[in-house]
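Ticket #4471: complex job returned nothing on first submit. Input attached below:
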Amino acid sequence: MEKLLEVRGLKKYFALNKGLFSKGSTIIKAVDDVSFDLKGGETLGVVGESGSGKSTVGRSILRLIEPTAGEVNYKGENILSLKGESLRSFRKNAQMIFQDPYASLNPRMRVGDAIIEPILSHNLMSRGDAIDKAVELLEKVGLDKDYFDRFPHQFSGGQRQRIGIARALGLEPEVIVADEPVSALDVSVQAQIINLFKDLQEEFGFAYLFIAHDLSVVKYLSDRIAVMYLGEIVELCKKEELFENPMHPYTKALISAIPKPDPRIKEKRIILKGDIPSHSNPPSGCKFSSRCYCVMDICKEKHPELIDYNGHKVRCHLFSKGGENNGEISSKENC
Amino acid sequence: MSKEKRYEKEVKAFLSHRLGMIGLIGVAILILIAVFAPFIAEPVSGYGEYEEKLLPPSSKYWFGTDDMGLDLFSQVIWGTRSSIRVGIIAVFIAISIGVPVGLLSGYYKGLFDTIGMGLTEIFLTIPMLPLIIVTAAVLETTSINTVAFIIGIFSWPSIARITRSTALKICGMQYLEAAKCLGIKTSKIIFKHILVNASTPIFVNLTIIMATSIITESAISFLGLGDPLAHSWGKILNNAHLSGAFGTAWWFSLFPSIAIMIFVVSFNFLSMGIRDALNPRISRE
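Support reply: We reran it on our side without changes. The output follows.
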């Protein structure tokens, strides 16, 4: 499959002003040197704790916030250089599904108008055709066509999320960034929406960048998974590979935290100590070294690189040359 | 869930708001009086009969007569017309300056915000009454439109501030980020998303401006700086003061004062009703 989106060295730094009387400002590295590809029709899951920069990555790709540095190429065109009208017209190619379905719909706008508005704004079709299309989309996402004239406050969270999906689909995008689209919903509704995502992808063939903090949600949907920690990708590989052979200690800890439905399976859960460190004062060397249970001396001195082992990318000294395993994939338990 | 008309809930909430309904009825009556003034009372001007000066209220002169022997009832009725006219002009000017300034400041921020809010501060700190006195002195003849215009020029800052703060709030909402992401044109974002959602606080503020503009207009007229030819409640009070009849003829100052009070209270009640009806915390349970 062709590469739809190439992200290279994406950085987003925020300057935090200290106050009136102290000089200088602290730099917060929300996203630090993130690179990945997204192929047409595939789903890339992005997981990480809150504050790991996963939403910032999604928003930077869509130019909802301006990245500090890096490149985002959509079909070979660097979209970070787009301005004004060309940026606006690019937007129909990449859409976003938001986390909070209660906040992402204008309360004063009828559902139908909300779906039609972007279509008309891009002059994709006449008003009459747009209305027909909106009705069709409502039915596609599992809503009644009579809902066309209603206001958002008349709907439940799951229904609103469906409306948000219909609104994004109206532009027939090739990339959809879903920013924790189910985390605000009830568990039973979550499953329905996730299945809807899957069905729609099969029908329309767009690519997802699926951001979540819940590995089990990502596991179901994704082809590949990127694990983020403090603004960096620490592990990136195929889904099956990640779950069968996780390399990074952080990924292992995340996977061990997934609840198992069978109570007889007793697996040792890896409990990480402490909280995610402050962005303004990250640990030196490897950013995970302060919480890592496999920490070595080198981890506190040298920042590890993201190294590719036959398509399984990992950022950890355990696997880098000179590390404990000297570039070999570890066979030891846990570490 | 049935198909719901736009604002149906809000209208219901307003109809059950007692003070709001009193305000609405008051405002409706005032507007009717203003429109049908020629059918209610003959306009009076010049001098009346000498024997009829300062007569107390009677069946012939419901509100009594002034020091010129002219019917006060007619003057109060016709005063309604100029009051509403002043209010409408002032509100119109306040919207046409305040809303664009507030939207630009709140949406684009940066330089627009600095300039817009700087202007607002300047206008808020200039004392209105002395400036009107100076303007009236410079223009020599002040028409009622001039007075309304000056009031409007000084009323826009509150509209600009409210529009700006609402625009800032909405700019932080996710649905605005969604609109940007969907590639909606900036003009549409400003009008269909921000202005529509800001219309409630703006409208509530307009009714308050309507009420305060009448207090200002009365003050200006009372000081003798208003339009000498127009019928105005403030001018009746001014006449009462100048003629020295404040102490002796109670009806001379009472009825125009009551009219001012009804006007101000009606518009304030109306604004309270609208505010409560549109407040989502109350109307949406």
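The CA atoms of residues 162 and 202 of chain B lie 7 Å apart. Closing as resolved unless it happens again.
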